[in-house]
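Q: I'm writing up a methods section and want to include an example of the input and output format. Could you take the sequence below and give the corresponding predicted structure tokens, formatted cleanly so I can copy it straight into the document?
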Amino acid sequence: MPEGHSVHRIARQFERNYVGRRVAASSPQGRFAEGAAMLDGRTATAVRAVGKQMFLEFDDDLWLRVHLGMYGAWDFAGEIIADPTIASANGRMGQTNQRGTDLDAPILDSAGENSLTSIGAPRRARVRVRMSEQTTGLGAEDDQWPPPVVGQVRLRLLTDITCADLRGPTACQIQTPDEVAATIAKLGPDPLVDDIAAGEEQFTAVVARKPTAIGQLLMDQSVVSGIGNVYRAELLFRARQNPHTPGRDVREEVVRDIWRDWVRLLAIGVETGQMMTMDDLDPDAYRAAMASRDDRHWVYHRAGLPCRICGTAILVEEMATRKLYWCPRCQA
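A: Here is the clean output for your methods example:
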């Protein structure tokens, strides 16, 4: 499931490529035909992301709510204007220890993607935005416009130069302003949307009264917005916190540290396009981490491998139907 940083990156691209433009909307799959008809011919006027959900506003106070869920994906095609706040970040936001890292040369992952500019593709390229990162196909340019529909497209949003295809979302619906407000009101604080200090107080207060394990609370979008499986595992390890401890039994200073760490890691994720959770890396190690998830995380996806700190084998177990990775010694 896409985590908060991915949805904020997607929203930034809609801001640059759709807001202020008239949109042709259709539902090639047919499952959103009525909603697409309501949007067709309207102008996109605003976009916002809160946690794992994106809201795209059109004129006459109509909003499109999209929650990608486990299998949802956006495919962009055409002329895509890169977000300069992403493209110029050089992967250093919150990474003060990375000064001097040469990022003018691209850092490519195993799919050949440079995440810093992954949603800044050249003309007629396709960019898929799914899960935690983005992949871009930079092969031969396709001169066909609009691009052919591929697969089960729930919603196609088309401007004169840009196409966005939505597949497999958990939620894709038209909402009124009041319905949008009601949806957002059910979500916990998002550091990129809400006042950070107020968000810390709200998060701390909610956790303090919950008997639920802290490992489950971090995945509860009504407690805090945007955290998914990867960030959950990494935040708990970085805090050296046992994931099974009831929220109300976690020391207040630890809860506050987790919030502040989430503020920092979310910002890094938005600017780099990667869930970078390792600290104090030298330039070579940083480049390796940007290129490979195996070098990017403390415990996530490392079941059976030695803890990077104590050498104990990392455990994996199921918590609330999701895989939880943790170190039984460092997080005892």
